[in-house]
Specification:
By secondary structure, this protein is mainly alpha-helical. It is built from 16 helices and no strands.
Length: 319
């Protein structure tokens, strides 16, 4: 439905030429902006509604009891959610506002775009079950380990103050009232959060639309294919700022692999595009300070690079 609306705006209202890079970029921008803003509003409203039933003290208590498994469960939840790096942010912010520890929330934010059913189905078709299974395991491992490391660094001080976990005015009143009062509380919380984030979302998606439609694929393939032993970190660093859907990422990794690029190098490039992106960093800037964004991107990048080298070593077994 959203894709149809975006296409009608681009081709019927704006009358842009079909198939042109500008038309594709504008369609991408409109579709992703609507998708992320609706998801952001909906998730914050639902979490706000549920928080009237589950006070933060109970949430923190439950997490404290399951703390040793928190990163695993967050990573597992991320693996079954069909979101890209930018679409995962609304749920990540909902976790933070609900008082879930930062490291556990990061495990979700890392794993959610790395693994989803669309990507798994595409990989099964292109790479086979061995490589796909190894990819899923490695993606969850990156999410769990990186989230654990980030959680132990006491980085909460770098969160933007007005998005820190807090008991918002009216929580207790809504909790003691009926369904309608709880629903209104959730909607008010969603309105307040959306007012703080909408501009950052549009800027981030705008950057993503430009990168997605104007960065030449052939140039990337040429650079990655000629870097030898340094191909894994270079492929990862090239992939980090890029932004694309699973349908676009997997075929690029397949082409790289078919052209003789080692398996781990091709997959590390795909992982970097999936898990991290410049638009994601722009959106996260509203929720966290630059040092935290840099640490999050740095640790996740190192995890992807290590995994890429591991896949290169295991390539003879996995093929």
């Amino acid at each position: 439905m959203l894709r149809l609306i975006a296409d009608r705006i681009v081709y019927s209202l704006l009358r842009l030429p079909s198939g042109s890079p500008v038309a594709e970029a504008v369609s991408f921008f409109i579709y992703d902006s609507m998708k992320i803003l609706i998801l952001l509003y909906g998730m914050i409203a639902v979490i706000g509604f549920l928080r009237t039933y589950l006070p933060q003290e109970k949430i923190r208590g439950w997490i404290g009891e399951k703390k040793e498994w928190g990163n695993f469960f967050a990573s597992l939840f991320g693996a079954v959610t069909p979101f890209c790096s930018c679409s995962s942010i609304p749920i990540f912010l909902s976790f933070i506002k609900a008082g879930i520890p930062l490291g556990i929330a990061f495990s979700f934010l890392i794993t959610s775009p790395l693994i989803n059913e669309y990507l798994v189905v595409l990989m099964l078709g292109f790479f086979g079950w061995k490589i796909t299974a190894a990819y899923v395991v490695s993606g969850m491992t990156i999410g769990v380990l990186c989230g654990t490391v980030l959680g132990k660094m006491n980085l909460e001080v770098h969160l933007v103050e007005d998005l820190l976990p807090q008991d918002f005015p009216g929580t207790q009143e809504a909790a003691s009232s009926g369904f309608r009062a709880r629903a209104v509380f959730g909607l008010r919380e969603a309105n307040g959060t959306l007012k703080k984030l909408w501009l950052w979302v549009l800027v981030g998606v705008g950057i993503g639309a430009f990168i997605h439609n104007f960065v030449p694929q052939q140039t990337i393939q040429a650079v990655i294919g000629k870097t030898g032993i340094f191909s894994v970190p270079i492929a990862t660093l090239i992939g980090v700022p890029l932004y694309g859907s699973c349908a676009a990422i997997v075929p690029i990794a397949v082409v790289l692999f078919q052209k003789g690029v080692p398996l781990g190098t091709a997959l590390s490039f795909m992982m970097a595009i999936a898990a991290l992106s410049l638009p994601e960093a722009v959106m996260l800037r509203r929720a966290m300070k630059l040092p935290l964004i840099a640490i999050f991107f740095g640790i996740t990048t190192l995890g992807i690079i290590f995994t890429g080298y591991l896949f290169n070593l295991l390539q003879p077994i996995l093929r």
